[in-house]
Structure formats: C-alpha cells, structure tokens
Design a protein that fits this description.
Radius of gyration of chain B: 20 Å
Number of helices of chain B: 15
Structural class of chain A: alpha/beta
Strand order of the largest sheet of chain B: 3-2-4-5-7-6-12
Keywords (chain B): Metal-binding, Mitochondrion, Oxidoreductase, Potassium, Pyruvate, Thiamine pyrophosphate, Transit peptide
Shape of chain A: globular
Radius of gyration of chain A: 21 Å
GO molecular function, one term (chain B): metal ion binding
Number of strands of chain A: 12
Subcellular location (chain B): Mitochondrion matrix
Number of strands of chain B: 14
Number of helices of chain A: 12
Order of helices and strands of chain A: HEEEHHEHHHEHEEEHEHEHHHEE
GO cellular component, one term (chain B): mitochondrial matrix
Oligomer: heterodimer
Helix content of chain B: 40-55%
Largest sheet of chain B: 7 strands, mixed
Distance between the termini of chain B: 29 Å
Pfam families (chain B): Transket_pyr, Transketolase_C
Largest interface: A-B, 53 and 47 residues
Structural class of chain B: alpha/beta
Largest sheet of chain A: 6 strands, mixed
Helix content of chain A: 25-40%
Shape of chain B: globular
Strand content of chain B: 15-25%
C-alpha cells in the first residue's frame, strides 16, 4: 500500500511539503466520506451537510501536515526557552485543524490574513520549515529576511497577507483584500482570521458593515480558543456566540478540532461569499500553550481543562484514529512518520541556526519601494547614514 | 497669489533687489499677458485624480461623501458620474474600517485614494496608516508594498474649533515608511498628487481647506496629463539673500507676503516651499541657510516637536558655522484652537509674526 514508500524517503528539508507528499501519496486518491463529529450550528443560513468528501491522500496529508505543524510549534517553544527566539512567540498547537482544513477547501488564489499566531498558517500556504525557523531566530534567510519576526510572516505569491500584531486590524485589511478580489473579478475569496479576543473590536464591525453593503467575498473566521490572552470569553463578550455577532451577516459554528468540519465549512463559506457576500465562521478550537511564550497559560484555566481537551478533542489524534480505522496505515507506520517529521524539523532548525544574521546595511532596506536616495539615519546621525534606494 | 503678482508689477525702485523683483514681476506679468491659465487648487486636485484614474484602472477613490455628494469640499466632483460606482466609493462614517479596507486593497495591488474629510478624523484610523501601511514593506522585507494615498484637508480652517483644526504634518512625517506631501499652489497640487498616486509607497497628502478656492497661474507643462513633481524636493518660491523663510501649505502665501513687506525695508528674504515634509529636502534647506545665514521656519501646527523643530535641528546640526543668528520658529499657539475670531487669529501665525521673526534674525527688531 501507499504508505510503505514513506519509510524509504530521503531527507527533504527544503522541499515544499506538497512535493514531498506527491511522490508517495499522490497515486492514491480513493474517495472516502467522513462524517463530522458534531453538527454545524447555523445563523441566517442552511448549514452544510455533515458528510465530507475526502480521499486517502487527503487523510494522510492531514495527518502528516498537522503532525509537522505540531512538532514545529513545540520545537519553537524549546528555541524560545533557549533564548534563540526573542520577543513575542504565539504558538498554535491545538489549533492545527483550522489551518489544514481551510487549505483543503481553497486554492492559493484565495487569500488568507491572520493575526500573530501565524506560523502554521504560513506553513499551510506553502511556507518552508527552514524559513520559519530562520525568521523566528532573526536570520537573513527568514521569510521576512529576519526583519519581521514571529508575528510578521508573509507569502504574497500564495496570497498570504500576514502576520499582524495589532489585534483586530487584520479584519478590515482582509475585507480590503476581498474588495480587491471583487474589483479584479478574480472569483476568489479572502479568509480574515481573528480570535475571540479580537471579536469585540469595533473595526471588525465597521469592516463587516462595509463588506455586507458592497457584497465583498470576505469570510471572517473567528478562531475561538475561548481565551483572549488571560480573559475567558464569558468575561469579555456579552454574547460569546461569535458566529451570530454579524447580526445581518450569516454565520456558522464549526467544531474547530475536526479538520473535516473545518474543510466543509470553508468550502461552504467560499461558495456563499462568492455569491452573497460576507459570512462568519466560528471555529470552536483550543490552544494548549498560553497566549504567548510569556504566558504559562495555567493561571486562568485549569490543567485539567487543558489535558481534558488534549484527551478528548485533539485534532491530530482524531485524524490518527480515522487513518487507523480506514486501514490506511498501521500504528508503526504513523510512528515512523512522526519520527521522520521530528528529524525534518530538527534538520531545519540546525540549518537555521547556522544561517547568519542580516547584514547591518539591511537596517535601511525596504523602508520604501522608491526611496529617491533620501537620507535615513542611525542613532548617531553623524556616524550612521544611508541613502534609501 | 495673483494679488502678489499684481503688486510686484506696480512697485518700482532702482535697487538691485528691487530690479530683480521688477524683472521677475515682469516675467510673471508677461506670462500673464501671454494668456497663461489660472487654476484653483480644487480644480487642480480634481484634474489630477481624474487623469490618474483615467490612466490606471487600479486607481479608485474612497471616502465619506466623495461620490453622490460630489465631495465634502467638491474635490471629487464629477468623478462618480465619469467613472461609475465601481471606481468611486461612498463609505459609511467608519474611518477605522474603511481605511483598513483601503490598505488591504493596496496590499492586494490596487491603488486606493482614501479621503479623510479632514485629517482630524484620520486619528480614528491612524493605526492602519502607521502599523498596517507605513511599516508593511519593511516588516515583509519588500513582499508587501502599499501604494495608497491618504488625502484630505489638514490644519486650521476658519472658526471650526479645537477638534477640527489640528495640523498632522509633524505626526505623520515622523514615521519611516510614509511619505508626507503638502502642496501650496495649483501646480503643487497637481504635480504632487499625481506623483503620490503613482508612488508605490503610502503617501499622506495634506491639503488645506482655505487654499481650495485660491487661484494660481499654471503653466502648460503643469496642465499636461503626464505632469509630475518630484517627491522630496522643495521649491524656492522667491529668491533672496538676507534670510531664509521655510514653510509649507498655506503659510507659503503668508511667507511670500512677509517677504514683500521685508523687501520694503531692504531685507531680501528667500522663501522656500517645502512641498515634501517627508522626505525632507535637507539639501535645499541647508544650501539656502548657508547662503543667507539666517533661518525663520513657519508652520500652522502646534509648536512642540513640530516640523519647524526638525528643520531647525537639521540646520543647527549641518550648517551651524554658517548661522549668524539664532534659528527662529513661528508656529501655531501652544493651545487647542479657540473658536472666537480674535482668539483664533491670535492662535495662528500671521504675516506680521513672520516679518518680526525675520527682522529679529537680521538683528533689526525695533
């Protein structure tokens, strides 16, 4: 069967994930229908069916990619504690199903924009492990040349518009990208992702109002992990039914720990947005880590709650059970896959550690596209000057 | 402006400076007599937007009342009729929302011209101007550039009170990643706005409500649809040798009037119109001060940490040994703008303030 080829795979650190897979799984596109674990709850629309069309290839890809995302985030935790990653580092482990389910429903012409918990979204859009770790460690081969950091990953050629540090700002920006897609008659949509904390931002409602007025193909995706930093949703929102908060805008509540439910919802939302304008998706998800690496994540929630979710709802475990129950791989094969992933991540980190920091002259690049030779200065302007190209 | 040209043509005198003045007046008078056109700043801005929309389908206009209302100050008059609702968008009164949408559209490759009814309202959207627009090209190491123009009236109008009179030049010009332009004449308005719309970086375009209705002579070259002024270059509006007066926007007119008054007293003032607050044309500023040895900077905005402060610092740092007098700053009063007409007048620079400062710099104060 398809999986036996995986164990003989050679190292492919820098090759994009899809290329690595295609060599071993691409021939097996046997269709499989998966039932979502929970029904969808709808607001002002008819929910999609719980039967999700998938394939062997997709199921295995889901497992591998999510396992890769998980390992990447856990490795980032260690790097942060080793002080190789500085500043803010917001980890996505637990929420992988949202990133992967969304990618499965859309193309690279559809745009995604998110906040600062962006490492896995970047990976899902085709970013590479090496560029992730290099960026996190502030090295020149990072996806933003070391100048962005954890919160500012971008991949424009895959319509991934970042990576934003200001809570809520990405939502109007995402509606603007949807505006451009409609303006250019592109038949594509934008997924503007935000958290339960950002869901109360005024600018979100301003952008939603305009999107509804102008029928923009904007899909607002609330990744509700139930905590806005240390504040539980019930303490921040009078109405934590985020899928209903659009009022006149339809919404869908989705089990965000179920990659297939996410896929189905995103497919549904894309069809809706192209015809009828904005829609809200609320993904009921969970983050195992605290808000960021500065937050232990256990002062405002119990360890029992965290371990409870890990046991009952972990998205990778769910896929693993499906893979096993559909006989697509054995336990050993999956364990081997996880070992390979671990090695892939470790190799990427080792390579990234060897990557040098940016040249000092990079301090002054990319301030403008067209600098007209204008002068810019360092702290001692008589010492350090540059002409911006 | 036309008034000044007329005045120049009338004044006689035989001194070298007045001869120079008369000569330049004759030139202006001659070009007027030859049938040179005049244009209001309003029409200049309107024609600039119109031409850029015509040339590039990615350019669109967005803001409150820009469409059906024809523009709160009529700058976008006729554009909705000409280009339709897919190019001219009336927004709800939600600056944070529509500015974010404009910046997002620019991320995706469109060229929005976002109007703030006045720049006072831009404070509601300032996070998008600075964090979403100005910094993106840098944070993404060049992947995401933002070819957007934020435009609208800036600074004091007449009697509109404290919340509607602030000048934002210093605030925006301190941010790396933004370009900040401030036109004075109709030619400035056309050339700088066209340059701004074509520019691949975010531009804050500070107009002035009281200048909209003013007419200026405009050359054939400036009327051409390919006309553009360079960003980052100041204009010497009037040459002089005794003192340099540097300013932008409406205060350029005041500075020119002050220069006239100073000329009557034998002081030859060089008046520089910055046109570009960021990038700041330090070369022209310093070259002028090195020539005259004296500096008077003028702005309408609040004095502390203002544009004038930056100009003074630049001159003191780079041309210290050329200065023959302390640098002078004339700025708006350090108070919120009052409503009463007499207090408002006291809160804003007047021609006599500029004259007095120039005389001080020449050690000629009474």
């Amino acid at each position: 069967m398809a999986l036996s080829r995986l164990s003989s795979r050679s190292n492919t650190i820098s090759r994009p994930l899809s290329a690595a897979f295609n060599r071993f799984i691409s021939t097996d596109t046997t269709p499989i229908t998966i039932e979502t674990s929970l029904p969808f709850t709808a607001h002002l629309c008819d929910p999609p069916s719980r039967s999700v069309e998938s394939s062997t290839q997709e199921l295995l890809t889901f497992f591998r990619t999510m396992a890769l995302m998980r390992r990447m985030e856990i490795a980032a935790d260690s790097l942060y504690k080793a002080k190789l990653i500085r500043g803010f580092c917001h980890l996505y482990d637990g929420q992988e199903a949202v990133a992967i389910g969304m990618e499965a429903a859309i193309t690279k012409k559809d745009a995604i924009i998110t906040a600062y918990r962006d490492h896995c979204i970047f990976l899902g859009r085709g970013g590479e492990l090496y560029e992730v770790f290099a960026e996190l460690m502030g090295r020149r081969d990072g996806c933003s040349r070391g100048k962005g950091g954890s919160m500012h990953f971008y991949k424009k050629d895959s319509s991934f518009y970042g990576g934003h540090g200001i809570v809520g700002a990405q939502v109007p920006l995402g509606c603007g990208i949807a505006f451009a897609q409609k303006y250019g008659k592109e038949e594509a949509v934008t997924f503007a992702m935000y958290g339960d904390g950002a869901a109360n931002q005024g600018q979100l409602f301003e952008a939603l109002n305009i999107s509804a007025l102008w029928d923009l193909p904007a899909i607002l995706v609330c990744e509700n992990n139930h905590y806005g930093m240390g504040t539980a949703e019930w303490r921040a929102a009078k109405s934590p039914s985020y899928y209903k908060r659009g009022d006149y805008v339809p919404g869908l509540k989705v089990d965000g720990m179920d990659a297939f439910a996410v896929k189905q919802a995103c497919k549904f939302a894309k069809e809706h947005a192209l015809k009828n304008g904005p829609i809200i998706l609320e993904m009921d998800t969970y983050r195992y880590h605290g808000h960021s690496m500065s937050d232990p994540g256990s002062t405002y929630r119990t360890r029992d709650e965290i371990s409870g979710v890990r046991q009952e709802r972990d998205p990778i475990e769910r896929i693993k059970k499906l893979v096993l129950s559909h006989d697509l791989a054995t336990e050993k094969e999956l364990k081997d896959m996880e070992k390979e992933i671990r090695k892939e991540v470790d190799d990427a980190i080792a390579k990234a550690k060897d990557c040098p920091m940016p040249e000092p002259s990079e301090l002054f690049t990319n301030v403008y596209v067209k600098g007209f030779g204008t002068e810019s200065f360092g702290p001692d302007r008589k010492e350090v000057k540059a002409a911006l190209p | 402006m036309w008034g000044i040209v007329r005045q120049r043509a009338v004044d006689g005198g035989f001194s070298a400076s007045s001869l120079r003045r008369t000569r330049s007046a004759l030139v202006s008078a001659r070009s007027y007599a030859a049938g040179s056109k005049e244009m209001t700043v309003r029409d200049a801005l309107n024609s600039a937007i119109d031409e850029e929309m015509s040339a590039d389908p990615k350019v669109f206009v967005m803001g409150e009342e820009v469409g059906q209302y024809q523009g709160a100050y009529k700058i976008t008059k006729g554009l909705l009729e000409k280009y339709g609702p897919e190019r001219v968008y009336d927004t709800p009164i939600t600056e944070a929302g529509f500015t974010g949408i404009g910046v997002g559209a620019a991320y995706a490759g469109l060229k929005p011209v976002v109007e703030f009814m006045t720049f006072n309202f831009s404070m509601q959207a300032i996070d998008h101007i600075i964090n979403s627009a100005a910094k993106s090209n840098y944070m993404s190491a060049g992947q995401i550039n933002v070819p957007i123009v934020f435009r609208g009236p800036n600074g004091a109008a007449a009697g509109v009170g404290a919340q509607h009179s602030q000048c934002y030049a210093a605030w925006y010009a301190s941010v790396p990643g933004l370009k900040v332009l401030a036109p004075y004449s109709a030619e400035d308005a056309r050339g700088l706005l066209k340059a701004a719309i074509r520019d691949p970086d975010p531009v804050v375009f500070l107009e002035n409500e009281l200048l909209y209705g003013e007419s200026f002579p405009i050359s054939e070259e400036a009327l051409d649809s390919s006309f553009c002024l360079p960003i980052g270059k100041a204009k010497i509006e009037r040459e002089g040798k005794d003192v340099t007066i540097i300013t932008f926007s409406k205060m350029v007119g005041f500075a020119l009037k002050a220069a006239e008054k100073l000329a009557e007293e034998g002081i030859s003032a060089e008046v520089i119109n910055l046109r570009s607050i960021r990038p700041l044309d330090r070369a022209t500023i310093n070259a002028s001060v090195r020539k005259t040895s004296r500096l008077v900077t003028v702005e309408e905005g609040f004095p502390q940490h203002g544009v004038c402060a930056e100009i003074c610092a630049s001159v003191v740092e780079e041309s210290f040994s050329y200065l023959d007098a302390p640098v002078e700053r004339i700025a708006g009063a350090d108070v919120p703008m009052p409503y009463a007409a007499n207090l408002e007048r006291l809160a804003l620079p007047q021609v006599e303030d500029i004259v007095r400062a120039a005389k001080r710099a020449c050690f000629r104060s009474k």
